[in-house]
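User: Before I run my own analysis I want an independent prediction to cross-check against. Here's the chain; please return only the structure tokens and, at the end, one sentence I can use as a sanity check.
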Amino acid sequence: MKTILLVEDDLHVADGLIINLEADGFQVVHVDHGNQVLSEFERGNFDLILMDIMLPGMDGLALCKKIRDMGSTIPILFITARDETEQKIEGLLCGGDDYITKPFDVNELLARIQGIFRRQAWLSSSEKAEDSFEFDNRSVNFKTYEAKGPGGNFELTRRECMVLKYLIEREGEVVSRDQLLDAIWGYRIFPTNRTIDNFILKLRKIFENNPKNPQYIETIRGVGYRFKIPKNEK
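Assistant: Structure tokens:
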């Protein structure tokens, strides 16, 4: 049985979520104040955090950053307000795994949670990329999220690892932004593709000698991206 840390200050919303999550087989621990989250997180053994962004005390984005700084890779699913597009992007880039927008259908939320666990299992699977991948004195570990590039050692977020693994498993193929959105998130999260572009930019800063002139993660104008290792580097 998986355990969810629910962080929601609206008690009416929280009560409904607890009933539905428990009915779907999850154990739920509820916190209603941002300043209580870290201590509760350190005490528990959680499989996922379901967290509102707007909280009294420390907000959800700051909490996500602190949890990632602690070295935790626990999935974090944000609850957001309808029109906070910039906040959604920031949440994903700071290490959030997904978001759901209020008001939402409980069945959609449960599907998002199960989707996170499925993609978590895929990231740990041993396909072409296996547990780690090395190229030209660069490397990424898909279990620990550790990466090495020209600038040193880095820690990737789960989503960054997923984007990179998807590209590596299709080395030499052109992958569209919509393919990445559908594969990594399970749906197209924004009417534009800014999210994918931001993730690619972060990966280039880690792995490319010159992010403005990439040789590994190429842009195919009007289509998407391609992971390619120059022949002299293989």
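Sanity check: The two ends are 44 Å apart (CA to CA).
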